[in-house]
Recover the amino acids of this structure.
């Protein structure tokens, strides 16, 4: 586990020209596209740290099926999400906009934020694809609103199977063959014995309760995603499948057969987390297998990414790597995630690509492919992933994040972190200090001032949050004192 991926940490980043937190700028020209609208599968996983995908060279966890996406496309080593916490990040992916721009600033608390959700004024990927003739389905974790107006089948999805909360129990812990492992954050507490509230698994527009508490939820999500692809591929419509695994999010539960494969990992918490990743990876394999079986893999766009980094408080993150943890923070490990993309008909394999990309790029890429002659909606902020995969230009893309009171910005090797309530601003040189431990703002005032101006402009442009900040907290992550925002 104590292994730092030095070659990747110090690799040269080739950056794009449009800031992810500003109006969309035309990216470099992409290669010629397929004439037929592609099918689209977006696989979003939960709390998966950057180093725990073996496509990037890590050895702790083998993810052969996720790696298949990279083998036929690209593994972006500088892949980012819109926020370092679940609900906010998902809102960015689904809309192609920084969520803070429409007041979706803070996470949704399952019990204390009644009425919080993705505003109906913001169109989801599914709502943009439906008018283009797509059949759409969502499977797994939703977490962008539980009320009817936010419900998936009212937000462009024809089908839904999953749960609406931020977390739920994978399976009844009394089920034979299931390992449930307490973490240092909940040691001594009894495991969940049931699913409650918005953690109950439901399906369809009627919100039918699904009686499946004796079956492992990761497998259940895969089953429904595979069935959807099988049925949709027999029709004449292109399809969009949003597969939102809650793995490997806490609580830590996994079938014994997967746990047994990692006997060499002595820490049961880390072992369970790794086994959960492996079980999820097998589900990704089944999805890819179904696409190949149906003869549609070449013209299916597959995107794989995590919603944020790994949460250090549970004790299962890869603490040998600077990007191995950071959920709730604006260290790199909070927003820099595994991010893989493939569309064989339109893009040849590119391997590891250092060009920075954002989850905000997913929607523009899909729309460009589905309707290449239509003008891109001006409110979208991202760029085309295929153009990014081929880009060899200068380091110039600006990325800005923020959930007040904490903000961050990155351009090239320079990364700025700012806390308004701590009255601190720090500048780090990622090429020399990927752990973000040495503040060099005093020696590089121009770079610090430039990024701070970008943060200030972003912060001043935002509307008031639609619901309140829950709390901030001082935390230590791998020797780095930083601030949580929730």
């Amino acid at each position: 586990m104590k292994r730092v991926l030095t070659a990747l940490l110090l690799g040269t980043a080739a950056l794009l020209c449009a800031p992810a937190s500003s109006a969309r700028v035309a990216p470099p020209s992409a290669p010629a596209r397929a004439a037929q609208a592609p099918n689209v599968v977006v696989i979003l996983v939960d709390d998966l740290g950057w180093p725990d995908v073996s496509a990037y060279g890590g050895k702790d966890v083998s993810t052969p099926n996720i790696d298949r996406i990279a083998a036929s496309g690209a593994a972006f080593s500088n892949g980012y999400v819109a926020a370092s916490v679940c609900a906010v990040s998902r809102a960015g992916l689904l809309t192609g906009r920084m969520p803070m721009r429409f007041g979706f600033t803070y996470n949704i608390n399952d019990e204390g934020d009644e009425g919080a959700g993705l505003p109906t004024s913001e169109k989801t990927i599914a709502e943009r694809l439906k008018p283009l003739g797509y059949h759409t389905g969502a499977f797994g974790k939703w977490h962008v609103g539980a009320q009817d107006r936010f419900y998936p089948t009212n937000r462009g999805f024809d089908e839904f199977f999953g749960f609406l909360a931020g977390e739920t129990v994978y399976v009844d812990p009394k089920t034979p063959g299931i390992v449930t492992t307490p973490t240092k954050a909940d040691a001594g507490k009894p495991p969940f014995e049931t699913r409650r509230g918005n953690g109950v698994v439901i399906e369809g527009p009627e919100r039918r309760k699904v009686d499946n508490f004796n079956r492992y939820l990761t497998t259940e999500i895969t089953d429904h995603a595979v069935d959807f692809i099988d049925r949709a591929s027999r029709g004449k419509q292109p399809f969009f499948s949003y597969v939102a695994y809650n793995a490997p999010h806490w609580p830590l539960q996994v079938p014994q057969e997967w746990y047994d494969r990692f006997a060499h990992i002595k820490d049961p918490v880390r072992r369970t987390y790794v086994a959960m990743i492996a079980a999820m990876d097998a589900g990704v394999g089944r999805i890819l297998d179904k696409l190949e079986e149906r003869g549609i893999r070449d013209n299916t766009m597959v995107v794989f990414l995590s919603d944020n980094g790994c949460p250090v408080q549970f004790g299962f993150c890869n603490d040998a790597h600077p990007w191995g943890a950071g959920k709730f923070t604006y260290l790199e490990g909070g927003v820099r995630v595994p991010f893989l993309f493939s569309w064989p008909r339109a893009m040849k394999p590119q391997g590891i690509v250092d060009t920075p990309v954002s989850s905000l790029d997913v929607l523009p890429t899909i729309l460009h492919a589905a309707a290449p002659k239509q003008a891109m909606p001006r409110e979208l902020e991202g760029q085309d992933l295929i153009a990014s995969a081929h880009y060899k230009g200068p380091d110039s893309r600006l990325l800005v994040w923020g959930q007040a009171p904490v903000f961050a910005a990155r351009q090239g090797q320079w990364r700025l972190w700012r806390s308004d309530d701590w009255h601190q601003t720090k500048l780090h040189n990622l090429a020399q200090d990927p752990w973000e431990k040495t503040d060099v703002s005093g020696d590089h005032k121009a770079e610090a001032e430039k990024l701070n101006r970008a943060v200030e402009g972003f912060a001043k442009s935002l509307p008031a949050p639609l619901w309140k900040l829950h709390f901030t907290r001082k935390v230590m992550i791998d020797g780095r004192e930083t601030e949580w925002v929730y």
Remarks:
- The domain at 399-485 is CATH 3.30.1120.10 (Arylsulfatase, C-terminal domain).
